[in-house]
Amino acid sequence: MCLGVPMQVLESNGFVALCADDSGVSAVDVSLVGEVSEGEWLLVFTGAARERLSEARALDIRDALSALTAALNGDFDPNAHFQDLINREPSLPPHLQALVKKEA
Fold first, then answer.
1. Among 32, 48, 62, 73, fewest CB within 10 Å belongs to which?
2. Residues forming a β-bridge with 51
3. Which NCBIfam families does this entry report, sorted A to Z (predicted)?
């Protein structure tokens, strides 16, 4: 399985862009999305950009990946990782509601 990672363009040179994420800076093939500009957000799979993202969508994906990493490391906190879902409709499923109440 391959996960897409949101990355922000630092500079572009034809079909290659220098992009950054939380883990560092990488050269990204942008031939599938076309020319990009500094500041744009891209969804990158194994070194190739597959989609342009709004900043809000890029940050949502980054937060979801952060929650996944925390869960894999045993540091999952539903109050932090599902903060945007706790008090909205539809509500969290019962098994996650129980975790939120337990942590609160």
1. 73
2. 43
3. hypC_hupF
DSSP for the chain, written as a single string: ----EEEEEEEEETTEEEEEETTEEEEEE-TTT----TT-EEEEETTEEEEEE-HHHHHHHHHHHHHHHHHHTT---HHHHTHHHHTSSSPPPHHHHHHHHHH-
> Which of the following CATH numbers is that of domain 1-53: 2.60.120.200, 2.20.25.100, 2.30.30.140, 2.40.50.840?
2.30.30.140
Q: Of 15-24, 57-66, 71-80, which gets the smallest average pLDDT?
A: 71-80
Q: How far apart are CA 97 and CA 99, in angstroms?
A: 5
List the chain domain ranges. Answer: 1-53
